[in-house]
Design a protein that fits this description.
Layout (H helix, E strand, L loop, with lengths): L1 H10 L1 H8 L3 H11 L4 E5 L4 E3 L7 E7 L2 E6 L5 E7 L4 E2 L2 H7 L8 E4 L3 E7 H10 L1 H26 L3 H11 L9 H6 L1
Antiparallel strand pairs: 1-8, 2-7, 3-6, 3-8, 4-5, 4-7
Helix pairs in contact: 3-6, 5-6
């Protein structure tokens, strides 16, 4: 799996460097260190990568497909919190941190399409982060990206017009609309 992981990560190198604002050297160090610890996994459309109500113990990085993060409100409404696509991390950072304490995840992650991904244990990330300064540096960049993504989602939700929300969604996620269900789009 390490060779496949490194090959897949290389496919998304430039986009990842830009998205996270990391150097090529840091990207390579991170990937070489993590590669022996990942497992390739596949999910069919509709399968859960993470269940709400159970501690989140693993994160994912998508080789292909679309993952949807969401939650169920107290009145039973399915609300989409965000999407991850090819080359992106997929999961709930908040739930992974809560999972360290054995707390249940608030969000679920479901495959909106067939997914091929790298799965990594969160405890491995924590251990590697403690052992290597460059792992902490990379983790910080991923956390910053996660916060930016969450902020964009909140901004979009603050718009009162559905037409404005749809236009902003299309600008922030070009091409994604064709890859997801209308139900998922509406719940976002």
């Amino acid at each position: 799996m390490p060779a496949v992981f490194l090959q897949q990560r290389e496919r998304f190198r430039e986009a990842t460097l830009k998205r996270l604002g990391v150097s090529g050297e840091l990207f390579d160090q991170f990937n070489r260190t993590l590669a022996p610890h990942v497992q390739q996994v596949r999910f069919r459309k509709g399968e859960y990568l993470q269940h709400a109500g159970k501690p989140a113990t693993a994160g994912f990085w998508l080789f292909s497909g679309v993952g949807r993060r969401g939650l169920i409100t107290s009145d039973g409404t399915d609300v989409t919190m965000g999407f991850a696509t090819d080359g992106e991390p997929c999961g709930s950072h908040h739930d992974l941190l809560a999972g360290e304490q054995g707390l249940p995840a608030l969000e679920f992650v479901v495959a909106e399409s067939a997914i091929t991904a790298a799965r990594f244990e969160w405890t491995t990330i924590v251990r590697l982060r403690e052992q290597h300064e460059f792992m902490r540096e990379y983790y910080l960049k991923v956390a910053e990206y996660s916060l930016r993504r969450y902020s964009q989602s909140c901004y979009m939700r603050s718009m009162t017009s559905a037409a404005d929300r749809l236009q902003t969604f299309r600008q922030q996620h070009p091409g994604l609309e064709a890859r997801i269900s209308q139900k998922a789009l509406a719940s976002f």
